[in-house]
Amino acid sequence: MFQAATDLAAMAEALGRSGDYRILRRLVARPTYSPTIGQEVRTGVLLDTETTGLDHAKDEIIELGMVKFDYTPDGRIVGVRDTFSAFNEPSGPISAEVTALTGITDEMVAGHRFDDAAVTAFVGDAVIVIAHNSGFDRKFAERYWPLFEHKAWGCSMSEIDWRKHGFAGAQLGYLLNGAGFFHQAQRAVDDCHALLEVLAFELPTTGSPALALLLETARKATLRVWAEQTAFELKDSLKRRGYRWNDGSDGRPKSWFIDVDETALDDEIAFLRTEIYTRDVEPGVQRLAAKKFFTSWTFSSVLIVSLRFRSARIQMAEKPPSTDNSNPFTKLESSEARNSAAAAISSGRPIFPRGIRDSNICFASSVRTWSCIGVAIGPGCSTFTRIFLPLSSLSHPRANACSAALLAAYTL
Length: 412
Known about the structure:
The protein is α+β, with helices and mostly antiparallel strands. The protein contains 13 helices and 15 strands.
């Protein structure tokens, strides 16, 4: 038996070297290892969920799989620390469509519940969580376990340009085959093991593991550019450019948007000015870090955003606490105002301006004029709120009073 296995391995090796054959090996999950004392490693978690549907606000997780692994600072995987696999019985029957897609039946999950403490303990020491569709998995994970809100996230599907590195696409099965493996996944944790090998694969274009490229991308600040109020007939131009449509149901603007790194921001703004708006306009720009990317929360701070022609570049840095001598808008941007407003909005309590009588101040769900100052506040999905104060009123004698009233409204 051993001799037969050795012969097969030798045959596969010879076929692979010939250049006329590609060999796919069955994926075997790596055993757990014990870290070496003194070795500099960091810990990550690969995560996959199976759910009853696509709506993170109402659908439920029915399976959670995770693999905890160590890696070196340059992105080389050292070994598997631990694995996690669990079912969860949803509040209603699993649909036939979900069963066909996941293989999970009502009988398989009956009586199972997630151990929240075990999930928290498993993820606690990880510095990054990686999923193969973080835009989907993160939103569900945050709803169930709040600690995921405070973790940096990476997406192995969207944060690596796989085609650029010789792969046929970004689907996990294609990537695994490209890395020289095949597998017959039965559980969510099996896909995590598959993703581990994909990230361990050394890209011929860089000479480094795919994980190194993913970490490099995740460490960069990403800027989300919003192309609001664009003409309908320009949608194809935006789509060809890589823009995606947000329907506004998650509390973010009903608008086209694209995510770029800082080096590409000027080119993106130039494209919008010349091809879309045909005028000198500053679009809305949102800075996203790895801890905020792919989350369902709209914003993590109060942002004062100038959306006007020929305006200064938008600044969205985190704000320190205000002082007694701070002006009203500084106070509005302060950490106290941010925290108070976030608590109010998260509770679902409506917020209304108090003492504002200026007819130039109004509520709006989207930008209605390019000549305004917008106050965007979050987190929150359906309760996202903006109040707009036209620039013309800034020179009005009552501007300071209006600003103070606006501040009072957001510090309930």
